[in-house]
Amino acid sequence: MQSDIQSKQSINSRAARDAASQHRPAPDGGSGKGTQSSNTVPSNCIDTSNTRILRTGIDSLYLTYQGHLSDESSIRLTELKKLAQSSSASSVNLAQFRVDPHVFEVKGNGRHPFAYILEDGTFRIEAAKQDAKQAPLAYAKVSSELLTVAGPDAALDVLQKVIDVLGAVTAGPNVARVDLCVDFLTDYPLERITDAEFVTKARSMSRHSEMRRFSGISFAVGAGLSARLYNKTLEMRSKNNTRPYLKALWHEAGWDGDQDVWRLEFQFRRDALRTLDIVSYKELKDCLGGLWQYCTHQWLKHTVPNLADQTQTRWPVSSLWEVLQGADWGDTCRILTRHKVERGRPPSDRHLFVNGLSPLTSFSAREGYTHAGEASEAFLKAAQDYHDGTSQITGVSFDDYYRTKVEEKRRFYNAGPNKPLGDGPHPADKAVSREYRKRSDGDY
User: Fold this and answer.
1) In DSSP terms, which residues pair with 109 in a beta bridge?
2) Please, how many CA atoms are within 13 Å of residue 262, restricted to the half-sphere of its CB?
3) pLDDT number for residue 121
4) Of 320, 301, 340, which is closest to residue 51 (Cα–Cα)?
């Protein structure tokens, strides 16, 4: 980030002045000095393509919470991490941390300086040990779906309840990373854009393609502030990620379901945010519009070349960019009231009923079955015979194998808590009771 960037209050006021005066800073990599736009640019150099914004939103949000892990959470997470590291599948499947309605999978590894990692489809939370020095209580990633469907304020309310169970919060939430995005439709020939048409403070620029089609351009990847201009629908198709909640928002905004949806996205990491004097989520929320103005007016612009003028900073911005600059952040992150966020990480219908039928159809082909019902019964009988027949070697019967696999999937999909064999107390509950007894007896 350049040293001339001022505080968040000045970002908003400066962006307003820039919008009014059409001030265009030079791409000097840090000076921020620019010249006033020229009135001599021929009007026939300004394109008139049709561009329409579908939504503005926060696509990614990473937060930190200062504080300390509670005694009970410390004991419980330590035991759950040991279970996750076990060589026994039945023990691994008990590595779950429950905060209703969430059932988090606890990982067997950590990531410095965080000892514990909890994950479900809504949040990924990394927590530090009680005695960790200079480490926050928790570092959390909020899912894009929850941010889109419920909105960031509601998402953080849910997250706060989970963090409060982990320990005592002394400060936060503070922002470690945020991605701001605008989804739009356009008939602008984006595939014909050249690098020379951009005025940017980014030091690097890369073009990308998917399925032999131009898919977008990235700017300053890996830097404190970076950007991407890319075909969102093409990305979703290439990754087989349908994102129905996102498509529902687009349809409500007038998308016909066929036209490509493009996205302009700016990613701010911690260092860039601190340079802009943004620490807390509240400070971020108060200046989303100012951040967008800074990014699209001063950090990155797309211009229409004017060969009669050798000074690129005087070239007019394209009609595409004018629309993107004017994105409205006053009603940020319009949410879907009719869409329910899936709890956990459940498999899709396609995964279950297309990919999941592969073993059954293979069995049917081998054994000559053509009727699904008959094949299903025969398949289960053959599977049971196989596992029971090898149990003397493996020590695992069909019922044991089936139960273990169901528990494994339940843990991975965050579908519900697994119970110990014999319905006895959970090992983590026993560890907490044992530790409290030791302390009450003065053995601690």
Assistant:
1) none
2) 22
3) 87
4) 320
Is pLDDT larger for residue 58 or for residue 33? Answer: 58
Which position has the higher pLDDT, 409 or 82?
A: 82
Q: Could you give the CA distance from residue 404 to residue 398 in angstroms, rounded to a whole number?
A: 10
What is the structure's pLDDT at 253? 93
pLDDT at 11: 46
Supply the pLDDT for residue 19.
37
Q: How far is CA 312 from CA 20, 37, 41, 151, 294, in A?
A: 20, 10, 11, 39, 19
Confidence class of residue 6 from pLDDT cuts 50, 70 and 90? very low
Torsion of the alpha carbons at 203, 208, 214 and 215, rounded to the nearest 10: -90
Backbone phi and psi for residue 283, each to the nearest 5 degrees, phi listed first: -65, -40
428, 429, 435, 437 alpha-carbon torsion, rounded to 10°: -160
Q: Inform me whether the pLDDT recorded for 441 exceeds 80.
A: no
Angle made by CA atoms 363, 364, 370, in degrees to the nearest 5: 170
Instruction: Report which DSSP code applies to 348.
Output: P
The helix or strand, by DSSP H or E, that contains position 410, with its residue range, turns out to be helix 398-413
Residue 279 in contact with residue 172, Cβ under 8 Å?
no
For residue 337, pLDDT beyond 60? no
Assess whether the previous peptide bond of 113 is cis (omega < 30° from 0).
Answer: yes
pLDDT tops 90 at residue 229: yes
pLDDT at 210 over 70: yes
Top-confidence residue, 38 or 178: 178
Token pair recorded at residue 91? 């023990």
Structure token pair of residue 354: 């297309």
Q: Which long-range contacts (CB under 8 A, 24 or more apart) does 6-12 make?
A: 7/276, 7/277, 8/276, 8/277, 8/278, 8/283, 8/286, 8/287, 8/290, 8/291, 9/287, 11/276, 11/287, 11/290, 11/291, 11/293, 11/294, 12/287, 12/289, 12/290, 12/293
Task: With both helix axes pointing from N to C terminus, report the angle between 372-389 and 358-367 in degrees, rounded to the nearest 10.
Answer: 90
Number of helices (H), then strands (E), belonging to the chain: the values are 17, 15
The DSSP-derived string for 184-233 is EEE-S-GGG--GGGEEES-S-EEEEEETTEEEEEEESTTSSEEEEEEEHH
Check pLDDT > 80 for residue 122: yes
The pLDDT mean for the chain works out to 85
Alpha carbon 320 to chain centroid, angstroms: 27
